[in-house]
Design a protein that fits this description.
0% strand, 12 helices, mainly alpha
């Protein structure tokens, strides 16, 4: 029931910093009685952590080194939405060491949220070695914040037979990101077909 969920969410927000650890544990499937929460419940908990902002950063950073790829991806996605300088160095360190394509794809938005100019430079450097999911995430960010030349460089890595599917996936990401630059980014991407 939506009303019960909202009431529970409001209760967690009133707890402030004390809510962060239980929410992180819930997402990890480590909360008592909730060892396998559904996707909707996990997304709600992620949203609550974003609303807790800086209060959520310490418990998230403590668990950022988890071996669980799905959980690590969620934590990176949350940190990408929280403007708190304490997240910057751990995210930059993870950018240097992360091997998972799924986590690296989430890291793209996180890196861009730290510093746009530095993020663009880091993404441009990574284009030649990025794996598929990460490359799509990079393409979305460079289509929005970069140049037509950036998009062309990415497209040069995509086999002609795979371009339509790749561009469609990137356009979906650009739409999800939104913003005033999304329309121009989508036009740039469509021009590559």
């Amino acid at each position: 029931d939506e009303a019960v969920a909202k009431k529970g969410a409001d209760g967690f927000l009133k707890l402030g910093a004390n809510a962060a650890v239980p929410l992180v544990c819930f997402i990890a499937g480590q909360a008592a009685g909730y060892t396998n929460p559904g996707e909707t419940a996990k997304r709600r908990a992620e949203g609550l952590l974003v609303k807790l902002a800086g209060d959520a950063v310490p418990p998230i950073l403590e668990r950022l080194g988890t071996k669980n790829e799905e959980f690590r991806t969620r934590l990176v996605r949350i940190l990408a939405q929280i403007k708190d300088d304490r997240r910057n160095e751990p995210l930059l360190a993870l950018w240097k060491s992360e091997k998972s394509d799924k986590v690296r794809a989430a890291l793209v938005a996180a890196i861009m949220s730290i510093d746009l100019a530095k993020g663009l430079s880091m993404l441009r450097t990574r284009v030649t070695s990025a794996l598929p999911r990460e490359l799509q995430a990079i393409a979305a960010q460079l289509a929005i914040h970069g140049t037509a030349a950036d998009v062309s460089k990415i497209m040069s890595r995509i086999a002609t037979k795979d371009r339509i599917a790749f561009v469609q996936a990137v356009i979906a990401q650009v739409k999800a990101i939104g913003g005033s630059a999304a329309t121009k980014a989508i036009q740039r991407l469509k021009a590559c077909l």
